[in-house]
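Quiz preparation item.
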């Protein structure tokens, strides 16, 4: 089975756990309700290692946090595996790495794909596309003090507020003090 490591600390322990088997990555993504983030490249390629070991690990913008929240990271070595090939169809020659966001329920295609080095801010926005981030109550990408304030305003009974229910944190299908506390804890780490 796939080993899925999930941590909720902003300064999570250790680097991301990149699964190297397509079937393990997709199985983990389906069981956790996450998307798959494919990064196909070579260990000897500077662009590949920069994206995997630097950009994907960034705390600001919170690339690593978004990957932990919404993705199962899958690294496919282009020299030792052919599992990534489906996602390169039509590209011809391309610059490594190949990066695809994939819905595990539709594994034969990708939501989007890029090649080469990505700007961290652009990559962060791309990763947020269609992903629910726990605690993001105000629907402004990432967690900020506004999320905690909005959760407290809802808790206090203020009406007419625009609330992102996808930011709910504890499964009770309502916004309350738990969300405010969650956000404040995340921001203080």
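Solution:
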């Amino acid at each position: 089975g796939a080993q899925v490591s999930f941590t909720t600390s902003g300064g999570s322990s250790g680097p991301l756990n990149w699964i190297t088997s397509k079937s393990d990555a997709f199985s983990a993504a389906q069981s956790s309700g996450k998307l798959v983030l494919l990064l196909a490249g070579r260990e000897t390629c500077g662009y590949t290692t920069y994206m995997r070991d630097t950009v994907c690990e960034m705390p600001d913008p919170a690339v690593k946090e978004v990957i932990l929240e919404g993705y199962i990271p899958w690294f496919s070595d282009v020299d030792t595996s052919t599992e990534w090939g489906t996602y390169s169809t039509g590209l011809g020659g391309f610059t490594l790495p190949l990066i695809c966001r994939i819905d595990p329920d539709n594994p034969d295609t990708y939501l989007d794909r890029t090649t080469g080095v990505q700007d961290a801010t652009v990559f962060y926005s791309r990763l947020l596309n269609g992903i629910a981030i726990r605690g993001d109550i105000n629907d402004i990408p990432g967690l900020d003090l506004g999320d905690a304030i909005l959760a407290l305003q809802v808790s206090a009974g203020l009406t007419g507020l625009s609330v992102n229910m996808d930011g709910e944190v504890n499964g009770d299908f309502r916004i309350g003090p738990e969300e405010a506390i969650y956000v404040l804890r995340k921001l203080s780490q």
